[in-house]
Amino acid sequence: MDSERTASPAVARTLTVLETLVGSEEELTLTALAKKADIPLATCAAIVYTLELRDYATRRIVGRSHFWRPTLRLYGLATQLVRKVDLSTIAQQEMRDLADQLSLPVHLGVLTGTSVVYVAKAALPGFIQFDTYPGKVAPYNLTALGKAIAAYLPEEGLLPLLAHLSSGHGPRAQEATEAAFRQELLTVRKRGYAVEDQEEQADIACLAAPFFDGTDQVAGAVGVTGFAKDLRGKKRDAAQIGLRRLAGTISQRLGAPVS
């Protein structure tokens, strides 16, 4: 096997512990953390102590119990990355222009794990302020942004999303759920944009189109949000045309190959 492609079990376990800490709604004891991460207790202890030394984790001591939680050091890393990529400003004027043209808020999002994170929004004064603020996190499969991104992922990137989508289902239900979602993603690819129709929130609909980076890999999506009753017919046509044009502009600025 190519040594450059051999995964490191130690790194994988460290990332699993970190992801488990971040994903938990409450502080975790070492025993609870090891159990949730499915990692031997001694290994888990070594990892969290190292994370503590590097300021990625901290603990609260109550009697003989130690309760672990992540720190905001990760947020600092993420902030540095966002500044470098600068997706929040890469097409700020074009986003505002499209928002003005459609009288709808325009937003930009990226996929993080199985969630979509909104990183930018353009909404002119007087707009109805839909719940699409920068920093919002939403399940990928319930959003047009998430579907637009997922539709263009390579198979190895899509499989973990499908596994999350089907978790908790029986084998037959899992196959049916995955098949239905794959069919929806195929539809997204055929028309070039995704639709969310009251799936995350009643009476609210969204459209989204993907954009690509310099390696021609999907990097995120841009979308619009409006009332489901309004985002139909000519309004939908204008929105999808504008979004695809905007996505093309962002792709170009990210260095994506010209198709």
Automatic annotation (TrEMBL):
Name of the featured protein: IclR family transcriptional regulator
GO biological processes: negative regulation of DNA-templated transcription
Gene3D superfamilies per UniProt: 3.30.450.40, Winged helix-like DNA-binding domain superfamily/Winged helix DNA-binding domain
Entry-linked SMART domains: HTH_ICLR
PANTHER family: HELIX-TURN-HELIX TRANSCRIPTIONAL REGULATOR, ICLR FAMILY, HTH-TYPE TRANSCRIPTIONAL REPRESSOR ALLR
Species assigned in the record: Kribbella sandramycini
InterPro entries, A to Z: GAF-like_dom_sf, HTH_MetabolicPath_Reg, Tscrpt_reg_IclR_C, Tscrpt_reg_IclR_N, WH-like_DNA-bd_sf, WH_DNA-bd_sf
Lineage: Bacteria, Bacillati, Actinomycetota, Actinomycetes, Propionibacteriales
Lineage: superkingdom: Bacteria
Keyword Transcription regulation set for record: yes
Domain IclR-ED span(s) in chain numbering: 73-256
Record keywords: DNA-binding, Transcription, Transcription regulation
A Gene Ontology molecular function term of the record: DNA-binding transcription factor activity
